[in-house]
Amino acid sequence: MNQFQEMGLPARLVERLGQMGITEPTPIQSRAIPQALDGHDVMGLAQTGTGKTAAFGLPLLTQLMGLRGKPAPKTVRSLILAPTRELAGQIREALTPLVAGTPIRIGLVVGGASIKAQVNRLERGTDVLVATPGRLLDLLDRGALRLDETQFLVLDEADQMLDLGFIHALRKIAGLLPEQRQTMLFSATMPKQMEEIAARYLTHPRRVQVDPPGRAADKITQSVHFVAKAEKPEKLIDLLDTHRDELALVFGRTKHGSDKLARKLEAAGFAVAAIHGNKSQGQRDRALRAFRAGEVRVLVATDVAARGLDIPDVKHVYNYELPNVAENYVHRIGRTARAGRDGAAIAFCAPEEMGELKDIQKAMGLSIPVASGAPWEQLPDPAAAPKSGRGGPGGKGQPGRRRRRRGPPRGQRKAA
Questions:
Q1: Are strands 206-209 and 42-45 parallel, antiparallel or unpaired?
Q2: How does pLDDT run across 65-86, given as a tens digit for each residue?
Q3: Taking the mean position of all CA atoms in its chain, how far away is CA 222?
Q4: Other C-beta atoms within 10 Å of 401: how many?
Q5: How far is 188 from 156, CA to CA, in rounded Å?
Q6: What is the dihedral angle through the alpha carbons of 284, 285, 287, 291, rounded to the nearest 10 degrees?
Q7: I need a surface site. Which of 41, 277, 289, 292 has the fewest CB within 10 A?
Q8: pLDDT over threshold 80, residue 121
Q9: Which of the 8 DSSP states describes residue 103?
Q10: Which CATH architecture has domain 220-412?
Q11: Bridge-partner residues for 80, per DSSP?
């Protein structure tokens, strides 16, 4: 008897896991699944890539298999909310093989796809609905579904939903759900607003945690290159040229910048694609399929790909531009060294990004090894700097020393 059987999972699920080569639970699965099977609400804290989908998916499917009959028209028996289309699609792909041969239907509703087709599919009722908050609200406003019979709720990567500005959508959705339900919330970090979400959604939750926040996978080799902004494209091309046959994921901050970089790489002879919030769902899906198949070797992306992208063959992750939110660095580099493999995370740091680099290293509790260049001298607070444009910090006599961008973190902008 393996550990999944000992937990009390149905023989059908244990058999399917074995066929997929999964025989032992990960730490988050070992701790969360028994609590969920006992009917408790669960708050799980673990980094992406630790097996969270199965941690909530296996107990959820176990309980659905015990229900009789079919869901009523337009109703949803269980709802899984995810912050991005990519993560939502990843969850459905992970759960679908587990329900093969059963009557359980798994639906997906995300933006960028035909809402009419989604309305039609929801008409007959759904056992498991994986959704992004925005598209779910659109469908609720159209009367395409009801949540008054939803018995199970999962919030996956809840901290990123807050980063993307979904707090008001989550509050609205909470008011449409029955009070008597089981809820599981999974998050990589625990920001202050998460306490409000937890209090609103969870009842006496059992808290399970593995890996301290900010810890990267042990098999990821990290390094940083100190390079001026204008020199980044050439540096990236030189590094990519050393491993043209391996998959590389390159993270930028903006949609326009990602497209521009992808064009430069294409001109340099790389098979490249870009994904970001301005791409249609079809474009994003085609780019990811080509990347998985190796037809595209370099994928340039904004933080829409920082979570939920599970492609074991990704060998290199480049932080071409450092994220404004330190925790996003950990999520980005977690796209490599998956399924027990090794991976490399390479960061580029321009003078104006020294603050971001220091925040990242503080959050991770380590110093990233320097691969080339030397740390830039970070400017003091501009408010304390001399007003003269000559000779003082940031003046004309200080090449390479630039003011850090002020304002709201880009990583929290909805447009990513």
A1: parallel
A2: 999 899 999 999 999 999 988 8
A3: 20
A4: 16
A5: 9
A6: 130
A7: 289
A8: yes
A9: S
A10: 3-Layer(aba) Sandwich (3.40)
A11: 130, 154
Closest CA to 82 of 105, 52, 113, 104: 52
Residue pair 283/277 in contact (Cβ under 8 Å)? The answer is: no
Residue tagged 């100190």 (tokens): 226
Reduce the DSSP state of residue 109 to 3 states and report it.
strand
Neighbours of 315 (CB within 10 A): 17
Indicate the fold that domain 3-209 takes in CATH: Rossmann fold (3.40.50)
Ranking 128-132, 159-163, 205-209, 229-233 by mean pLDDT, the lowest is 159-163
Tokens representing 253 are 């901050």
Res. 407 pLDDT band, cuts 50 70 90: very low
How far apart are the two ends of the chain, measured CA to CA in Å?
46
In the numeric block, the tokens 């969920």 are attached to 36
Coil, helix or strand for 372? strand
Q: Are the C-beta atoms of 402 and 352 separated by less than 8 Å? A: yes
How far apart (Å, rounded) are the C-alpha atoms in residues 213 and 69? 42
Query: In which residue are the tokens 């973190």 written?
Result: 409
Write down the domain spans for the chain.
3-209, 220-412
For 373-381, what is the mean pLDDT? Answer: 75
Tell which phi-psi region holds residue 245, choosing left (phi > 0), alpha (psi between -120 and 50) or beta. Answer: alpha
> Residue 192's pLDDT band (boundaries 50, 70, 90)?
confident
What is the secondary structure of 140-207 as a DSSP string? HHTT--B-TT--EEEE-SHHHHHHTT-HHHHHHHHTTS-SSSEEEEEES---HHHHHHHHHH-SSPEE
Please indicate, yes or no, whether the overall pTM of this predicted structure exceeds 0.85: no
Residues 6+ apart with CB under 8 A from 285: 89
For the chain, what is the total number of helices (H) and then of strands (E)? 15, 14
Instruction: Supply the DSSP symbol for 213.
Output: T
